[in-house]
Specification:
The structure is a homodimer of 125-residue chains. Chain A contains 6 helices and 3 strands. With 125 residues, chain A is mainly α. Chain A has 2 domains: 70 residues, Arc Repressor Mutant, subunit A, CATH 1.10.10.10; 39 residues. Chain A has a 3-stranded antiparallel β-sheet. Chain A starts with 11 loop residues before the first helix and ends with a helix. In chain A, 22% of the residues are buried. At the A-B interface, helix 1, helix 5 and helix 6 of A face helix 1, helix 5 and helix 6 of B. Chain B binds a DNA duplex (30 and 30 nucleotides) through helix 3.
Amino acid sequence: MFQLDIRERKPLYEQIKEKMKTLIISGALKSDEKIPSVRELAQSLTINPNTIQKAYKDLETEGFIYSVRAKGSFVTPLEQSKNYPGRDKLKQEFEKIVSELMYLKEPQEQLIALIKNIYEKKEVK
Amino acid sequence: MFQLDIRERKPLYEQIKEKMKTLIISGALKSDEKIPSVRELAQSLTINPNTIQKAYKDLETEGFIYSVRAKGSFVTPLEQSKNYPGRDKLKQEFEKIVSELMYLKEPQEQLIALIKNIYEKKEVK
DNA sequence: CTTTCTGTATCACAAATACTAATACAGTTA
DNA sequence: TAACTGTATTAGTATTTGTGATACAGAAAG
């Protein structure tokens, strides 16, 4: 599914979260699609299942996946993720970064262009 | 200048960085304005000078302040901060967040409106 | 030149937190 | 029952965090 980099100073579970998010956001993983079980992925990456669990737990809290005991973990359908709890936090992060970029005299047109670009790219899929 | 919250689980130097950033970005601290010395602020907040030093060092790396030995630390003028090293990193963060928000079906008009709002507010000052 | 203020660097230590691991528990399915 | 799921508990280690003490270096003021 993907590889981890031990030499990276970033925690393993963070790396897992990022890769998984990328797969979900990019559309490589569809709604309700089953993702590898904690043990499966652990074996595949040669790390401890608990590390996977931590990553999955975070991803669930952030609304990207949902887990069902004895069944597995799955990608959250968009409709359900629309009003997930982390949304406001994300927006606050967004505002913070925009404020900083503004302080650095980044033209707002540039930021708006960036947004449009991102939205267009994904729409094409 | 500001207060810290010991009960906060966030590191002291992180709190200092944030408060200082806010003061700078909001315009409360002007370009080249002198900020408290490491020892001054340490005494004022009743913490160790090394903690302040760590915060200041980070802020300098991020381009918000500059320090001159034996003189003090000062707010980086906007012109100089235009091409500071952390800018690209910030933009990457920006793109990441926008991608996530898009996945959550946040309308791009909403994000654009947010940006305009932030830029307008500060412009008025 | 001496004193006194700046920032900076280094080393050390304790406490807290982060990270990973080992193991056991619990529910579902076949 | 067996074999798969996620989940919870516990534990040990590594890293981060905050602090302290001390020393160095440059600038300003007397």
